[in-house]
């Protein structure tokens, strides 16, 4: 472990250690911090460790205590600094103190972390550089499949070897199966712009495994703004995405933050195909509702994350799904084209919703 001395505000000194691991195309580094009890703001800084070509770096903070405020800023030269960026707690993790996953520009070389807490605290700053994808995924390469007896084919997708070709994003060592009854839609609440979405998927894998301390990426499937589908845990595997009520669910995460904007048409079209296939596979009416035993709630077959959890996720998607489900009587004849499983309310009859100016969410009417 390499030890570095840093100066805190007020002339105090802090020792922290750096642990570094590299696995082919990616680099991960953690900085362990011990903060004294003080009502004063404590500031530490350092040099970002990454070298070589990178699309971006991801970062988050983990901690032991409960009451603190933290923020971070970056610089390309150590003199001119960007604005302070808050490190809020991830609302999806109720068991561990971990901030939301955020992304930094590859040109950044220096960072400063600002911390304030009335008690002695220990925290760990995590940096992850996902490496450059050997082939940027603009088309899915996984084999399609048509489930026996169902006319809705499984759409093509990038499997784990496609989005993590170096092999350093291992799957759950002992996954559990689940019988899917509900399809849960999420948004990543992260960046809306990237030139390497497979690298974003790798960053989410790292965050879920090394931040949340899960055994694998939490979602069954992910969809990027170009409409490329990525296999996460995969089909009928118990995920980690629905506030510890995951039994009977398939979690689909659309990459991006849709708190204030709507997803791309390409993403919605890919989501439609994925949900249509799985609805057909399980023989469910995507416009209906059913009892979900794990949560004890009656939920729509296609639900937004916040239908069953205390969260804003999946942003605009909930508006789209809710508004379109209200038209289910008119849409019945369309959905029958795929044995009740074409999620037509997400695209065909809601084109006006999906194609609204992407500067704001459509209004909620429920």
Number of strands: 20
Through-space gap between termini: 54 Å
Query: What is the C-alpha radius of gyration, as a whole number of Å?
Result: 22 Å
Q: State the share of residues found in helices, binned by percent.
A: 10-25%
List keywords for this structure.
20 strands, 6 helices, alpha+beta, 7-stranded antiparallel beta sheet, globular, disordered N terminus, 5-stranded mixed beta sheet
Report on the structure:
This protein is α+β, with helices and mostly antiparallel strands and 366 residues long. It has six helices and 20 strands. The strands form five sheets. Strands 1, 2, 3, 5, 8, 9 and 11 form a seven-stranded antiparallel beta sheet that branches. The termini are far apart. The model is unreliable at 1-24, 308-316 and 318-366 (pLDDT under 50).
What is the strand and helix layout of this fold?
Elements (H helix, E strand, L loop, with lengths): L1 E6 L5 E11 L2 E10 L2 E10 L9 E7 L5 E7 L9 E2 L10 E2 L3 E3 L5 E8 L3 E9 L15 E2 L6 E2 L5 H4 L18 E6 L9 H15 L9 E3 L5 E3 L17 E6 L10 H18 L6 E4 L4 E4 L1 E3 L11 H10 L2 H8 L15 H4 L12
Parallel strand pairs: 14-17, 14-20, 15-17
Antiparallel strand pairs: 1-2, 2-3, 3-11, 4-10, 5-8, 5-9, 5-11, 6-7, 6-10, 12-13, 15-16, 18-19
């Amino acid at each position: 472990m390499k030890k570095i001395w840093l100066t805190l505000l007020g002339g105090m000194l802090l020792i922290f250690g750096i642990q570094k691991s590299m696995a082919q195309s990616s680099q991960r580094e953690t900085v362990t911090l011990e903060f004294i009890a003080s009502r004063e703001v404590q500031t530490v800084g350092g040099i970002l460790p990454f070298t070589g070509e990178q699309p971006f770096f991801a970062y988050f903070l983990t901690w032991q205590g409960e009451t603190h405020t933290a923020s971070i800023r970056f610089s390309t030269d150590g003199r001119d600094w960007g604005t302070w960026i808050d490190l809020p707690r991830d609302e999806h993790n109720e068991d561990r103190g971990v901030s939301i996953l955020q992304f930094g520009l590859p040109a950044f070389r220096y960072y400063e972390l600002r911390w304030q807490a009335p008690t002695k605290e220990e925290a760990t700053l995590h940096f992850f550089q996902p490496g450059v994808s050997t082939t940027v995924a603009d088309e899915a390469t996984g084999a399609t499949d048509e489930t026996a007896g169902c006319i809705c084919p499984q759409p093509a997708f990038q499997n784990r070897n496609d989005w993590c070709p170096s092999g350093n994003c291992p799957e759950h060592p002992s996954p559990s199966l689940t019988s899917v009854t509900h399809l849960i839609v999420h948004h990543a609440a992260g960046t809306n712009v990237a030139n390497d979405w497979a690298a974003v998927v790798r960053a989410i894998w790292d965050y879920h495994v090394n931040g949340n301390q899960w055994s694998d990426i939490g979602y069954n499937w992910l969809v990027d703004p170009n409409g490329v589908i990525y296999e996460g845990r995969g089909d009928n595997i118990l995920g980690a995405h629905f506030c510890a009520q995951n039994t009977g669910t398939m979690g689909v995460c659309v990459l991006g933050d849709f708190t204030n904007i709507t997803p791309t048409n390409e993403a919605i079209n890919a989501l439609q195909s994925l949900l249509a296939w799985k609805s057909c596979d399980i023989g469910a009416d995507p416009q209906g509702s059913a009892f979900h035993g794990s949560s004890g709630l009656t939920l729509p077959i296609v639900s937004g994350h916040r239908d069953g959890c205390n969260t804003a996720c999946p942003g605009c998607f909930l508006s789209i799904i809710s508004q379109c489900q209200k038209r289910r009587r008119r849409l019945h004849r369309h959905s029958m084209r795929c044995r009740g499983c074409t999620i037509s309310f997400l695209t065909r009859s809601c084109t006006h919703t999906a194609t609204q100016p992407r500067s704001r969410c459509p209004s909620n009417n429920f």
